[in-house]
Amino acid sequence: MARSGNFAGLPKVLAAEGVTAVDLVVADLGVSSMQLDNPERGFSYKAPGPLDMRMNTSRGETAAELLSRVTEDALTRLLEENADEPHARFIAGLLKAQPMTTTQAVGKAVWEGLAGARPDLSKPDVKMSVRRTFQALRIAVNDEFSALDALLRALPGCLAPGGRVVILTFHSGEDRRVKKAFQAGHRSGVYSDVARDVTRASMEETRANRRATSAKLRWAVRAR
């Protein structure tokens, strides 16, 4: 049975189905391509749209509302923690200089502001900062790290002895959390084995789907 929710709700979903433990959990942390490619959802700087970014548009604040609410210091921390953005302080100043309500406004502000202030940066570097800015805002709007942390805490109790979990991440912030949680579980004896290295998409896969380029897969096995 399909149920709508986020990863933090896995224990409740299993309980509602009368399941005490499962043999396999597969968690794909990527955003739906259908959402990313829909300008009305506001996830991408590539097309004009409202600065929304909510996974569930029926609740929560939009990215535009978040930007208007947070302080410049808080926005700096958000960019650093959610996307490892090296120019976080400068970009935060750009985004707080005037109201931002569209994806184009944010993309233009970061691109033109950073390129103008740092002519030593290459176009790919500036583009990456624009991408990281959108990533950081999306993560904050949807509280994605809290949901992932809740999943990682709940996993041992959801897996049957010998059960496996496979998690597919798409940026360093997610991968760090998964890696550390699996390693800590292995040291404590919760997991009998964990992935030592990440599994990445093959060249054939990335040629067929450019978004697979950043994908990293890690796994763990529940101790018996």
Concise structural overview:
The chain has ten helices and five strands; from the N terminus they run H-E-H-H-H-H-H-H-H-E-H-E-E-H-E. It has 224 residues and is an alpha+beta fold.
What does the oligomeric state look like here?
Answer: single chain
Net shape: globular
Structural class: alpha+beta
Name the beta content range: 5-15%
State the low-pLDDT regions, or none.
Answer: none
Through-space gap between termini? 28 Å
> Would you tell me the overall average pLDDT?
94
User: What is the number of beta strands?
Assistant: 5
Question: What are the defining features of this structure?
Answer:
single chain, 224 residues, alpha+beta, 5-stranded mixed beta sheet, 10 helices
Molecular structure report:
With 224 residues, the protein is of the alpha+beta class. Helices cover 50% and strands 14% of the residues. It is built from ten helices and five strands. It has helices at 10-16, 33-36, 63-69, 72-83, 88-96, 103-117, 123-142, 144-158, 172-188, 203-208; strands at 22-28, 159-169, 191-194, 199-200, 216-222. Strands 1, 2, 3, 4 and 5 form a five-stranded mixed sheet that branches. α4 packs across α7 and α5 (88-96) crosses α6 (103-117). It is globular.
